[in-house]
Recover the amino acids of this structure.
């Protein structure tokens, strides 16, 4: 398996049209996209099931270094277990990277260098340098790069990305009990990054200052963090995330100019809007709210076809969220990855 990094050789690459350019040039029936998944864990299975459900994609299979895991996923969703990452990429038009975060860069880099559309589960990569390289490769190769920030689709269904008063502040709490998943990265990159992405999207900028406190850790890898972000114009975001809490709790309150406030419960999929801002009270009926992961995969497929951007997180947004998360870990003295 190839293990070298090739960022230093980008200067001699010749930019070539990506898959979207070829698909836009086609006539007649819609091209069925061959989709593959890297990583046969829980989220790998979720992504495989979405590709199976879409009429304009066919799930061809999965690569996972643990062959038994790949075989089990294919037994459930179809497709074939590939013996190597390169073989999977060669067989696909689009690729979801759902492996542990420390392996995101290598898989996404190879797929982007092959001109494939890539959807990477959050975080985009484990380091800022890796994420910047991926964003650069997507542009260089004319390939679509999207990141798995699914909560954006719930906010979009609610109307929170619509024409609303200016945001003054937001508070978010995203807590969960101990588990065995995503322990290769800090809680900041595991859970808080969802709210970081939403805060950056709502504020329309990166924070000017970052303050943070680590309340629990495992060998220096943060398990409970509080952060305070100050954005240009004075917007303040206060975020808290834990994966050692007694119970799940995922809420956000958003304060607007004029005194309006919206309170969102991500688990119940509800919001309180006492000021009557122009939000959709029936948003739960929208497919994007009922299945935000499916909506993100559908938007990714549409982007590869050249059918618009929507609210999905692209490589630049994924990079901004990652760099903010890394700044939070640095501010609280935490390690970000194993």
């Amino acid at each position: 398996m190839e293990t070298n990094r090739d960022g230093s050789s980008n200067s001699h690459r010749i930019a070539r049209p990506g898959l979207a350019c070829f698909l836009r040039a086609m006539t007649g029936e819609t091209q069925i996209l061959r989709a593959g998944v890297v990583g046969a864990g829980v989220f790998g299975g979720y992504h495989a099931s979405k590709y199976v459900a879409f009429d304009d994609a066919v799930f061809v299979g999965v690569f996972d270094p643990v062959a038994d895991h790949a075989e089990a996923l294919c037994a459930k969703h179809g497709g074939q277990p590939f013996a190597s990452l390169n073989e999977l990429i060669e067989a696909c038009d689009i690729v979801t990277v759902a492996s542990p975060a420390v392996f995101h860069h290598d898989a996404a880099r190879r797929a982007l260098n092959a001109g494939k559309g890539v959807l990477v589960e959050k975080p985009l990569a484990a380091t800022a340098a890796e994420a910047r390289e991926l964003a650069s490769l997507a542009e260089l190769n004319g390939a679509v790069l999207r990141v798995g920030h699914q909560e954006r689709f719930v906010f979009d269904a609610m109307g929170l990305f619509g024409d609303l008063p200016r945001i003054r502040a937001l508070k978010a709490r995203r807590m969960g009990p101990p588990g065995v998943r995503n322990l290769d990265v800090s809680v900041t990159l595991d859970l808080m990054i969802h709210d970081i992405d939403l805060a950056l999207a709502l504020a329309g900028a990166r924070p000017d200052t970052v303050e943070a406190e680590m309340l629990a850790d495992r060998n220096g890898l943060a398990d409970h963090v509080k952060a305070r972000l100050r954005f240009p114009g004075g917007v303040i975001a206060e975020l808290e995330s834990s994966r050692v809490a007694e119970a799940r709790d995922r809420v956000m309150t958003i304060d607007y100019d004029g005194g309006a406030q919206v309170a969102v419960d991500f688990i119940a999929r509800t919001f309180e809007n006492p000021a009557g801002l122009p939000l959709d009270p029936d948003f739960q009926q929208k497919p994007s709210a009922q299945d935000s992961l499916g909506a993100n995969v559908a938007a990714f497929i549409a982007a590869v076809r050249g059918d618009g951007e929507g609210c999905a997180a692209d490589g630049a947004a994924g990079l901004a969220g990652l760099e903010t998360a890394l700044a939070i870990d640095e501010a609280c003295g935490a390690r970000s990855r194993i």
